[in-house]
Amino acid sequence: MTIKVGDAVPQATLTKMTENGPEAVDTAALFAGRTVALFAVPGAFTPTCSAKHLPGFIEKAGEIGGKGVDEIVCISVNDPFVMGAWGKSAGADGKISMLADGNGDFAKALGLTMDASRFGMGLRSQRFSMLVKDGKVAELNVEEPGAFKVSSADHLLSQL
Predict the structure, then answer these.
(1) pLDDT tens per residue, range 82-101
(2) Has residue 47 been placed in a domain?
(3) Inside any domain, residue 120
(4) Residue 122 confidence class, pLDDT cut points 50, 70, 90
């Protein structure tokens, strides 16, 4: 079943790269008592994700934060080493938290997976954005396959 506005975000463990190596991030702690803008991409370093999706959130990070968002999070079904390298190469440090959903458990729990096997990528997250307030979905924007519009930083910013 796909998550919807008003639902509680499911518990999962994501991973972030730190200077001391990979560190677990519990979604319950990440979202509790906070407002978080989250966006998910099918893959780090992929064309639309690298040219449009992540750069848009980096560019709008100040405006999004100015609207009461405590943290902006990017999630992908990649390992934390890749997510850390992608964030560093894109200039996301200090603006976007780059979290790995290595096995796709979070994407599965949200009901927002896609099969990218024909591209050699296996099970991935669909492209989406959401606004989470105190652990509940306040806004959810899921893209149609191959599209990039409603999950953009500009669209989410218009919902704040």
Answers:
(1) 999 999 999 999 999 999 99
(2) yes
(3) yes
(4) low
Given a contact cutoff of 8 angstroms between Cβ atoms, the answer to whether 80 and 22 are in contact is yes
Domain total in the chain: 1
Using alpha carbons only, how large is the chain's radius of gyration in Å?
14
What confidence score (pLDDT) does residue 46 get? 78
Rounded mean pLDDT of 117-141? 87
Residue 49 lies in a domain: yes
CB atoms within 10 A of CB 89: 12
CATH of the domain at 104: 3.40.30.10
Rounded-to-integer distance, Cα 59 and Cα 156, Å: 13
Catalytic residue among 49, 74, 77, 137: 49
Does this model's pTM top 0.85? My answer is yes
Asked whether residue 1 is domain-assigned, the answer is no
Quote the domain boundaries for residue 70: 13-158
Q: What is the 3-state secondary structure (H, E, C) of 62-108?
A: HHHHHCCCCEEEEEECCCHHHHHHHHHHHCCCCCCEEEECCCCHHHH
Contact predicate 59/153, CB 8 Å: yes
74 is catalytic: no
